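Field log, afternoon session.

UNIT: design team B
ACTIVITY: writing a sequence onto a fixed backbone
BACKBONE:
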């Protein structure tokens, strides 16, 4: 609810116009948004879907119907973590239920004995026979069993996709970037700082913890051609 309905991060309205009203150097590093017709601060991007400029915009997520920016980025990470845990739990419950409703495997004890005491060829043959037997028993599945199989495949697929997205998001936070700033910095050699402090600062952890963490500086040498 928070990530979907909370404001993604509206930038502060900056006074602009004549030089006495603005002040010398007040709009350094600012650009002008043609859609909003006002100055746009650094790391601010205009979202055409939402029709507004978003501070520290990461991306516009169609699944929540909202942008991900400075105002709700932490909520988005919490949403991804909870969704990954939920899909993993759903997959485990599907497997648990399938084991209990699956028809009993014929000659299961004999297959288990071959796996425990046989050589490699016997083990492979036993695994093959067990797989074929389970596939044959799957024909006898009830509607409930087929629904559980579908839910298991869907839960695993969603869990994998969300885990990749979560890892990508945490990687960008570790680098002190957003997805859009990462795209804008591609192809340019810049000095960057990768640090666990970026993660602690993002999640609002105490500064006393940050002092005990190492900082990895990513310094790239520029070669002149």
């Amino acid at each position: 609810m928070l990530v979907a309905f909370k404001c993604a991060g509206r930038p502060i309205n900056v006074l602009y116009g004549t030089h006495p009203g603005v002040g010398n150097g007040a709009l350094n590093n600012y650009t002008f948004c043609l859609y909003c017709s006002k100055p746009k601060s650094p790391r601010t991007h205009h979202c055409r879907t939402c029709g507004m400029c978003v501070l520290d915009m990461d991306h516009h997520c169609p699944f929540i119907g909202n942008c991900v920016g400075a105002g709700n980025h932490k909520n988005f990470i919490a949403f991804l973590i909870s969704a990954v845990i939920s899909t993993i739990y759903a997959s485990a419950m599907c497997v648990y239920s399938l084991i209990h409703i699956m028809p009993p495997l014929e000659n299961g004890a004999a297959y288990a004995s071959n796996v425990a005491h046989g050589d490699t060829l016997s083990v492979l043959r036993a695994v093959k026979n067990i797989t074929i037997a389970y596939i044959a028993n799957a024909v006898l599945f009830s509607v409930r069993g087929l629904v559980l199989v579908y839910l298991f495949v869907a839960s695993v697929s969603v869990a994998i996709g969300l885990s990749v997205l979560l890892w990508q998001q945490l990687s960008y936070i570790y680098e002190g970037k957003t997805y859009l700033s990462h795209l804008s910095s591609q192809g340019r050699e810049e000095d960057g700082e990768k640090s666990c402090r970026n993660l602690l600062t993002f999640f609002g952890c105490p500064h006393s913890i940050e002092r005990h963490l190492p900082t990895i500086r990513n310094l790239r040498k520029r070669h002149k051609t």
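LOG NOTE: The chain has nine helices and eight strands.
NEXT ACTIVITY: expression trials, pending approval
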